[in-house]
């Protein structure tokens, strides 16, 4: 058992200090972080809490998992390490496909996969 916890199904109104306050009932909170959308600043509905010890983390799981926080029943369990993602392909002029180059799709017909036929 580790002392890092995943907290899911959070209401979008919950912030870092709300998490810290809820979890402090079960021991020392080293850190509490609600994950936020980079572009909009809106909560993603989940976060992470690091407790002072494994025992405190287990107490927090037992005490808060399935309980209401801000009107929603939260999911609390041990955080898992981030799994490596496979490399991305395609995209902006990325990988080549048979029959033409990647990149932009031109609406004027001058690209590899043009949208219009410019002949009259």
TrEMBL record:
Keyword Secreted set for record: no
Pfam families assigned: RRM_1 (PF00076)
Annotated region described as Disordered, given as residue ranges: 78-120
Domain RRM residues, every copy: 3-81
SMART domains noted in UniProt: RRM
Keyword RNA-binding: yes
Keywords (A to Z) from UniProt: RNA-binding
Transmembrane segments: none
Residue spans of biased composition, Gly residues class: 90-104
GO molecular function: RNA binding
Recorded superkingdom: Bacteria
InterPro entries: Nucleotide-bd_a/b_plait_sf, RBD_domain_sf, RRM2_NsCP33-like, RRM_dom, SLIRP/GR-RBP-like
Name the UniProt record assigns to this protein: RNA-binding protein
Species of the source: Lampropedia cohaerens
């Amino acid at each position: 058992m580790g002392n890092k916890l995943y907290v899911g199904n959070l209401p979008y109104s919950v912030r870092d200090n709300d998490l810290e306050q809820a979890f402090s009932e079960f021991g020392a909170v080293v850190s509490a972080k609600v994950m936020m959308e980079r572009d909009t600043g809106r909560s993603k509905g989940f976060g992470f809490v690091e407790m002072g010890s494994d025992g405190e983390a287990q107490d927090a799981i037992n005490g808060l998992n399935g309980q209401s926080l801000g009107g929603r029943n939260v999911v609390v369990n041990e955080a898992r390490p981030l799994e490596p993602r496979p490399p991305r392909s395609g995209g902006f002029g990325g990988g080549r496909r048979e029959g033409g180059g990647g990149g932009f799709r031109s609406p004027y017909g001058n690209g590899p996969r043009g949208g219009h036929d410019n002949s009259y």
